[in-house]
Every structure is written in structure tokens, then in C-alpha cells.
Amino acid sequence: MYQLPKRFEKLNQDYPEVAKAYEALGKAVHTSGPLDGKTRALIKLAISTGAGLEGAVHSHTRKTIELGITKEEIRQTVLLALPTIGLPSTMAAMSWVDDILDKQ
């Protein structure tokens, strides 16, 4: 089962109303349109990759695994960023994905 990042757990502990509002926002955007869970998860991974957010890439990689998305699909999602964000940023994101995938 997916475990919340420690930093979010601390936010939940220190500011429960803020964490609750943030979770409600997340649920609202995820249910606001026709995209299925797999597509949404891969988009979130791609956004995290493009933004260069290591923790978010870790988190969204864990979520994709929980949804049964294959390692190949996860890696291609990151690889698609190459022409847009460049080799160094893409390789950094790929290493973050591998941090999680290598534990599987």
C-alpha cells in the first residue's frame, strides 16, 4: 500500500485543516474530468519530472506501481521529457524513478 511522504504526514500532524483542504483539492481535480487513473498517474509523474521535483517523482512513481503501471511505462513517461527539459534533467528524474523501481 502507498505510504504518504513523511513531510506530508508532518503537515497533517501540524496543520490538519490545511492537509485536509489540500487532500480535498486533489480529489476534486482528479474527479473533474474523463481521464482514467492510469492516465492521471502518468501525467502527475510527467509534471513532477518536468518541474524537477525529486520527492514528487518518488511519490508519483510509488503511486504508479500501486496502480499496476509497468516499469517500462513509467520509464517511457520520464523519457518523453527529454526533448523538452534536456538530458541532465531527464537523467536526474530517471535516477529518481530508479530509486523506487530498484526496490521492487
Explain what the structure shows:
The longest helix has 15 residues, at 16-30. This protein is mainly alpha-helical and 104 residues long. The model has no long low-confidence stretch (mean pLDDT 95). It is built from seven helices and no strands. It folds into two domains: 1-33, no CATH class; 36-104, AhpD-like (Up-down Bundle), CATH 1.20.1290.10. Helix 3 runs antiparallel to helix 4, helix 3 (37-51) crosses helix 5 (71-79) and helix 5 (71-79) packs antiparallel against helix 7. It has helices at residues 6-14, 16-30, 37-51, 54-66, 71-79, 82-85, 87-101. Helix content is 77%, strand content 0%.
Task: Tag the structure with descriptive keywords.
AhpD-like, 77% helix, 104 residues, 2 domains, mainly alpha
The share of residues in helices is over 70%
Mean pLDDT: 95
Sheet having the most strands:
none
Which architecture of the largest domain per CATH? Up-down Bundle
Q: How many DSSP helices?
A: 7
Would you tell me which CATH topology of the largest domain applies? AhpD-like
According to CATH, what is the class of the largest domain? Mainly Alpha
**Count of domains:** 2
